[in-house]
């Protein structure tokens, strides 16, 4: 039973894959618009985690609509949620895909789908959507990550990651320069997974 | 890292334990008021699942308050939720217990704690509360159960199970007879886990 896990190379999507490993056949999927080498970056992490990996190209139009949203709102929430929803829809439209998962935690706000968005995707596209970390709080996730994964952390502008935000930031950099990014995205610590920790 | 999984011998709590098995040291805990041999029943299932098991006695006063609630309401929701909350609090007051889990699914309504009840228990009692199936819908749980567990199913009055409901039903039977049970509890299909399915 194969599950496609939306994979950014970050700790939440990596831990999600580890959690489902005993019950599903895992495939990691990284969504890209082609602005940055996100696919290669995530492929390297996937290899270290020992999971099969593929890159899914998303329509450039999705990024353009997300760009319109963030420029209109002045903050990234609805733009990122929009990309996330479209990424799941794109993946779900593959007839081979029956189960989709992502790294959403209990306390996450972005990207997160509402229960009605989830049910709509499941019903329309005939897939099951799973958030294996949805019942885990931030503290428990941190403890599990510390125990099972080797990570590097740093400010978001310097830490390589293959999530939706990096390409949206890149598009804004190209059109408006560095200053605009600082204005639109709150500064936060980003993490990137290096490998599994091998337990004794 | 030990986790105490609230265990009724049903498919949701069993699947929860299987899901967390690779990352935690599992202990199954069955809560009992002593009206029925729920502890022995659950111990037998736990042995088949190959997890350590213990019985936690709950204060009889909790059952009496739940009884008052169901008699007042005319349906079991708040009575069952009340027992569930008190069971987690009782377990959390054990200083050895740091992580508690249960079998709550995405679409469950009873027993289910609100996010503020969960945060209150975590903050007051210094534990982390995890619902490993919270991001799984009913259909996916059914598929996983079918694949990994051997179960028996039947109407709730005939299927042995070690959940809160069975002892609350028993108390009502003792005080008011069979008819009152049918009046208060909606008829539903109950399941009981027999063992793991050994995969080829």
UniProtKB/TrEMBL annotation, chains A, B:
Pfam families linked to this entry: DUF7411
A GO molecular function annotation here is:
hydrolase activity
Keywords attached to this entry:
Hydrolase
Family matches, as InterPro entries: DUF7411, Rossmann-like_a/b/a_fold
Query: Superkingdom, according to UniProt?
Result: Archaea
The name under which this protein is listed is Alpha hydrolase
Q: Which organism is it from?
A: Methanosarcina baikalica
């Amino acid at each position: 039973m194969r599950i496609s896990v939306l994979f950014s190379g970050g700790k939440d999507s990596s831990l999600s894959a580890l959690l489902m490993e005993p019950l599903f056949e895992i495939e990691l999927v990284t969504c890209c618009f082609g602005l940055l080498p996100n696919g290669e970056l995530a492929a390297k992490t996937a290899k270290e985690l020992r999971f099969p990996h593929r890159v899914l190209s998303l329509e450039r139009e999705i990024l353009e609509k997300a760009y319109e949203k963030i420029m209109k709102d002045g903050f990234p929430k609805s733009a990122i949620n929009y990309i996330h929803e479209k990424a799941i829809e794109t993946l779900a439209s593959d007839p081979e895909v029956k189960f989709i998962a992502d790294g959403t935690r209990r306390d996450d706000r972005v990207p997160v789908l509402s229960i009605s968005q989830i049910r709509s995707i499941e019903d329309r596209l005939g897939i099951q959507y799973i958030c294996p970390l949805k019942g885990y709080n931030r503290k428990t996730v941190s403890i599990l990550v510390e125990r099972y994964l080797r990570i590097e952390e740093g400010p978001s502008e310097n830490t390589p990651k293959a999530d939706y935000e990096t390409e949206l930031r890149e598009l804004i950099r190209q059109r408006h320069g560095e200053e605009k990014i600082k204005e639109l995205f709150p500064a936060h610590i980003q993490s990137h997974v290096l490998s599994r920790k091998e337990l004794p």
